[in-house]
Specification:
Layout: E1 2-3, H1 12-22, E2 35-41, H2 50-59, E3 64-72, H3 85-93, E4 96-101, E5 109-116, E6 120-123, E7 131-137, E8 142-148, H4 154-164, E9 170-173, E10 183-186, E11 189-192, E12 195-205, E13 214-223, H5 240-248, H6 253-258, E14 263-264, E15 282-284, E16 295-299, H7 322-327, H8 331-346, E17 352-354, H9 377-392, E18 397-403, E19 416-418, H10 421-425, H11 428-439, E20 443-446, E21 450-451, E22 454-455, H12 460-470, E23 476-479, H13 488-493, H14 501-504, H15 512-519, H16 525-541, H17 556-570, E24 572-576, E25 589-593, E26 601-603, E27 633-635, H18 639-646, E28 651-655, H19 660-668, E29 672-678, H20 696-706, E30 710-715, E31 730-733, H21 741-750, E32 789-791, H22 801-807, E33 824-834, E34 837-846, E35 852-861, E36 870-880, E37 885-891, E38 899-901, E39 906-909, E40 912-921, E41 924-933, E42 936-938
Parallel strand pairs: 1-33, 2-3, 8-9, 16-17, 17-18, 18-20, 19-21, 19-32, 20-23, 25-28, 25-29, 29-30, 30-31
Antiparallel strand pairs: 2-13, 3-5, 4-5, 6-7, 7-8, 9-11, 10-11, 12-13, 14-15, 15-16, 21-22, 24-31, 26-27, 33-34, 34-37, 35-36, 35-40, 38-39, 39-42, 40-41
Length: about 950
């Protein structure tokens, strides 16, 4: 373990001074509302005196600091792959730091650095390698800052600008091609007409007493005069907060209260749709006289829904389930899925998408696990955050839900999730916090359940103290449908909008009851304005005013491509004894058995069900239940037909599997038998057990006995018992694979695509290994009534693999497990820490004969006596050709190194001896490093 010893300390006095000045009201001679200042340096410092550098940045009123063409070498003998000292400086000051590279996986990278003292409203990321976009908020204005590395493509850079600018005053740095509409160029800098003046000054930044100063250029851009007229809130140079304040000041009380509760967009009790609603989960009328658009909200856990086909002609891409996306361990997959849903929502007239499901999997029987992203807060938070960012890249507000601890569906409207504050912060809330930081959702949806006795939509600690104060969430909190129980109490606790209360709640609490509370002084008028402002702010920030949705045909091919790539990267090869897979050319006779694989692939039930696609609707109608939370749906993507298309040289037959003996006879006559096993789950009900339903275990056992080359493809909500595992050489977990499930599964079985999915959950042997082996009230028509409470203090923050490690249990398959058709080796693990930052580098080589991708997983084994024994702290997915080797860089999420101090409300890294593990899965370390961390507060 190497440690950087160059001076980096920042005194408390300077920290406080800068914190104050960074957010002070701007004047005519400073940055901020009158001017935007950018300092561009010619090179990056390898170390710095933080106090000295911070003081200089303060004196120059620097809003953003940029450095182009930074080269980071993968030098394991030195410190060049260490955390950037500018990153540590940004951490201490509370600034935003970004290193933008065309190849973020590599340890040796070329890119650019951006540091901003201003809050970031939106940004680019993995979807735009080598390019950087930050939408910054200076307290009154918003400015779009673009930097470009040497590797960036000019045409794609223009595309990024056109998609993200939304009329904001913009600055392009390092751009030699100035042929971008609306920009004036001066050398390698271009500015939009949102600025009326620009000056450039040569400066030198002193980094410490012993080193030469770094030359740079200070660019000062004066904002153009504000747009006046009757609708000043349509001035796109203003930030979303300023625009919201301007419009709220013009609203009547009736118009304000109209914003605070939505109507059920499908009509009440089968009646007509609300006037103006297009047919969806929620609808809020606009205010025509002020130009406020209506709010049209669609369910979209796994794609844009069209309940009952109410919107004639509309269809959408049925994406694979949440665990499939999470199994990819690939943020790019998550972003692309979110962008697909956002684009299709916008093209179907929606400006709000009820997406962003980040609840952790604490129990494989939870009926809604198929909407979520697994058990680990880092993996779930990062991937759901990217999905949210993808949705909002299409100018559609995304929610983040269900806040919080809505981890079981049984008695979800009433049960209380009991858990201590520290455990809650280090598990479920950490997942939400990471997703919020990455995705910046416009809205958060509070949950049905109670948390420590208090309803989620009345929870002051969660909504006010944590979400809005500690996490500084600027958007609005909407309720889940049926989650509101009061007016003034909920409003004072932080709820901003009631959802479809006229249908799902006992009363429309945010209409007359809240009016009485405001008029009587129980709820301050300032709180009323805050509620409305938060809603409008989210709409302004995400382009609802400036780029309203348009009804257009969706791009079916693009949706299919995103869905199939998710299946291919998110399916997990659990077992492959004797290399039964992939199906080679010698396999001429194949029988496919069960799972309605001749027709399609199964999907989950409830509000997220995508029933209308470009390929039609339910491929297998009539499977029970056919009413809520059904119908059971099979998306029309036949694995049988897809496999026949991939292997036209083979004889491929189908047997429905209802008769085990007949299936066994067919299997015995084939070279390979492939059994498709399904498990349906749905919102509002949990699974009664971990077993496959409908005698499928007996079917698999019978087929495996008849043919030793049996492959099982699982289409399930999550882990199930596998009593036949040792008799079946190959098992592929495909989750709920969506509208291109058949094609994706066929590509994986034939080796056209190499499996690279890794489990986002621990796979127990059976329910006896769970924290709560028996839970009352599970399933339809349970024998015992549900309990009023669920005791999550049993495992606390030790969810999934942490529980197994703490209890010394051996799972069927570990978190992070997944096989490939090739093999990988790891060597030369090295790590460096600086403050709250820890960076590891390692060599990875593809030692097999085919191309493939592996997921390098970085875990931290905690000191002896820690309540949590091990944590995932970082990961990186890498694709390599046969024989190819790369050195990769993995940076740890600081809060995964720390514990939450409930007294000080801070994340603290404790001094002690730790072990860093580079692993294939949570219980399979490949290389380890022992080292000591010092006390540190994570900022």
């Amino acid at each position: 373990m190497k440690t950087i010893t160059k001076p980096l300390a920042l005194t408390a006095a300077i920290t406080l001074s800068l914190a104050a000045s960074a957010w002070a009201a701007p004047t005519a001679t400073t940055g901020g509302a009158d001017a935007f200042t950018v300092l561009s340096l010619e090179q990056a410092p390898k170390w710095l005196n933080a106090a000295d550098v911070a003081a200089q940045l303060q004196a120059m009123n620097v809003d953003a600091l940029t450095i182009g063409n930074v080269h980071r070498e993968a030098d394991t003998s030195g410190t060049s792959h260490a955390p950037d000292p500018l990153e540590a400086l940004a951490d201490q000051l509370g600034y935003t730091y970004r290193f933008v590279s065309a190849d973020p996986a590599s340890a040796e990278r070329r890119g650019s650095i951006v540091i901003s003292r201003l809050p970031v409203e939106a940004e680019s990321g993995i979807e735009a390698p080598g390019m950087n976009y930050l939408r910054l908020n200076d307290g009154r204005h918003v400015v779009a800052l673009y930097t470009q590395t040497a590797a960036a493509d000019g045409a794609r850079f223009k595309q990024l600008i056109e998609a993200s600018r939304v009329g904001a005053p913009s600055v392009l740095l390092g751009v030699n091609d100035a042929a971008v509409t609306g920009f004036d160029a001066n050398g390698d800098v271009a500015r939009s007409n949102g600025f009326q003046s620009a000056t450039s000054t040569a400066v030198k930044l002193r980094i410490d007493a012993d080193s030469p100063a770094i030359a740079g250029k200070l660019l000062t851009l004066g904002y153009a005069a504000p747009v006046g007229g009757d609708t000043p809130w349509m001035d796109t140079s203003l930030n979303a907060d300023a625009r919201a304040r301007l419009i709220v000041a013009k609203m009547t009380d009736d118009e304000k209260f109209q914003m605070l509760h939505s109507y059920f967009g499908l009509g009440k009790d089968g009646g007509p749709l609300p006037e103006g609603a297009v047919g969806s989960a929620g609808f809020v009328p606009g205010v025509a006289r002020l130009g406020i658009p209506s709010q049209q909200s669609a369910d979209a856990g796994v794609g844009v829904t069209n309940p009952g086909g109410i919107r004639k002609g509309d269809h959408a891409t049925a994406m694979p389930s949440g665990p499939s996306t999470a199994s990819s361990w690939n943020p790019e997959i998550a972003f692309a899925g979110g962008a697909t849903m956002g684009r299709e929502a916008w093209q179907q007239r929606f400006n709000i998408l009820l997406a962003g499901s980040v609840n952790l999997q604490r129990d494989p029987r939870n009926g809604r696990n198929f909407e979520y992203a697994g058990e680990d807060p880092l993996l779930a938070g990062r991937l759901v955050g990217e999905s949210i960012r993808g949705v909002q890249s299409q100018h559609v507000v995304s929610t983040m839900k269900h806040f919080a601890l809505n981890d079981m569906e049984t008695s979800r409207n009433f049960h209380s999730a009991e858990i201590g504050e520290q455990a809650m912060r280090e598990s479920d809330l950490l997942a939400f916090e990471i997703a919020l930081d990455i995705g910046k959702p416009g809205s958060v949806m509070c949950s049905y359940n109670r948390i420590n006795g208090i309803y989620g939509c009345e929870h002051d600690y969660l909504m006010n103290q944590v979400l809005k104060q500690e996490w500084k969430f600027p958007g609005f909190v909407m309720s889940d449908w049926g989650g509101v129980h009061s007016g003034s109490k909920a409003a004072l606790a932080g709820l901003d909008q009631q959802s479809a209360g006229e249908v799902f709640d006992k009363a429309v609490y945010f209409d007359e009851p809240l009016r009485l509370a405001v008029n009587g002084g129980v709820v301050p008028r300032a709180r009323l304005d805050d509620m409305v402002s938060r809603i409008l702010r989210a709409m302004f920030a995400n382009g609802n005013f400036d780029l309203p949705p348009q009804h257009q045909p969706i791009d079916d091919a693009a949706g299919f491509a995103a869905a199939q790539r998710t299946v291919e990267e998110g399916s997990v090869l659990l077992r492959n004894a004797n290399n039964v897979l992939p199906l080679g050319p010698e396999v001429k006779r194949i029988v496919i058995i069960g799972g309605h694989a001749d027709k399609g692939v199964i999907g989950g039930g409830g509000s997220s069900m995508v029933g209308w696609t470009a390929k039609g609707t339910n491929a297998v109608p009539g499977v029970l239940p056919t009413t809520w939370p059904g119908p059971v749906i099979f998306h029309p993507s036949s694995p049988l037909e897809a496999l026949r298309a991939e292997r036209p040289d083979a004889s491929i037959e189908y047997v429905d599997g209802r008769n085990v003996a007949a299936a066994a006879r067919a299997a015995a006559a084939a070279d390979v038998a492939i059994v498709f096993a399904t498990q349906w789950s749905a919102e509002s009900v949990d699974l009664p057990h971990m077993k496959l339903p409908d005698n499928q275990d007996a079917l698999i056992a019978g087929v495996a006995k008849a043919n030793p080359k049996t492959v099982v493809v699982l289409e399930t909500n999550g882990p199930v018992e596998l009593p036949w595992l040792q008799q079946v050489p190959a098992v592929l977990q495909a989750w709920y694979p969506g509208i291109r499930g058949g094609e994706g599964i066929a590509a994986l079985l034939t080796g056209k695509v190499n499996p690279s999915g890794r489990l986002p959950v621990t796979w127990p042997v059976d329910a006896s290994q769970l924290p709560r082996p028996e839970v009352n009230g599970l399933g339809f028509n349970p024998k015992h009534k549900p309990d009023d409470t669920i005791d999550y203090d049993i495992e606390g923050a030790n969810v999934g693999y942490k529980w197994f490690a703490a209890k010394g249990l051996t799972p069927q398959f570990a978190f992070g497990h997944g096989l490939s058709y090739t093999s990988f080796t790891y060597e030369n693990l090295s790590a460096i820490s600086m403050g709250q930052r820890l960076v590891a580098t390692v060599d990875i080589r593809n030692t097999g004969k085919v191309a493939g991708a592996d997921v390098a997983q970085l875990y931290l084994k905690m000191p002896e006596g820690s309540a949590t024994p091990i944590r995932l702290i970082g990961f990186q997915k890498v694709t390599l050709q046969p024989g190819e080797s790369r050195r990769i860089r993995i940076e740890a999420e600081p809060k995964t190194l720390a514990s939450f101090d409930t007294a000080d409300k801070q994340w603290k890294i404790a001094e002690g001896r730790y072990e860093l593990q580079l692993s294939r899965s949570a219980n399979e370390p490949v290389e380890t490093i022992a080292f000591v961390l010092g006390d540190e507060v994570v900022r």
